[in-house]
Design a protein that fits this description.
This protein is an alpha+beta fold and about 170 residues long. Helix content is about 20%, strand content about 15%. It is built from 4 helices and 7 strands; from the N terminus they run βααβββββαβα. The chain has a 7-stranded mixed sheet with strand order 3-4-5-6-2-1-7, with helices on one face. The longest helix has 17 residues. The site of zinc ion has 5 residues, from helix 1.
Length: about 170
């Protein structure tokens, strides 16, 4: 799914290299997996996270190169959105499959040729909720490398951003 929302855009700005993470219309291409399918082999001491808005989603990144790693909701939700730009490998396009939804076009810069839905289309909700339900039944929210048993993030979130303060506007 490609998300053009202001939250994703503010996050890219926070990381400090927007062009690297956003397409030219401010979109982030995100591939959804389950937390249980993610393992850090090394460097987990470099894990950081931030919530762009109070109560917003947890966005995990690496402190060394400020690379966005995964967006997660909570320990209970079987969802981790990985920016497809950090996924590498042979036949990546075939492995990931086509983009299924373009969402939150209200915040897009200019007119993306993909004609995103202004918010979430019914199709995108069905896709996301279907993924969540299937994997909740499987219990694939656990184990998670992102949350402790008490539900807190494994690293304390950075102080909350205020996108309205951004000098980018
Ligand atoms: Zn977004």
């Amino acid at each position: 799914m490609v998300c053009y929302c202001d939250d994703c855009q503010a996050y890219a700005a926070y990381l400090g290299d927007e062009d690297k993470w956003l397409d030219e219309w401010g979109g982030t291409d995100i591939f959804q997996v389950t937390p249980a399918s993610i393992t850090f082999l090394k460097g987990s001491d470099k894990l950081r996270c931030v919530r762009v808005k109070p109560g917003g989603i947890f966005r995990f990144y690496s402190s060394c190169c400020r690379t966005p790693l995964a967006n997660t909701v909570s320990r209970k939700m079987p969802f981790a959105g990985i920016p497809s730009r950090i996924i590498h490998g042979n036949d990546k396009e075939a492995a990931l499959g086509p983009v299924r939804c373009y969402v939150m076009g209200t915040y897009a810069k200019g007119q993306p040729p993909t004609h995103p839905h202004p918010k979430f289309s019914l199709k995108s909700l069905v896709v996301v909720l279907g993924f969540m339900l299937k994997n909740k039944l499987k219990g694939a929210n656990l184990p998670t490398p992102f949350f402790r048993d008490d539900g807190k993030a494994v690293v304390a979130p950075d102080p909350t951003l205020n996108p309205d303060n951004s000098a980018r506007q």
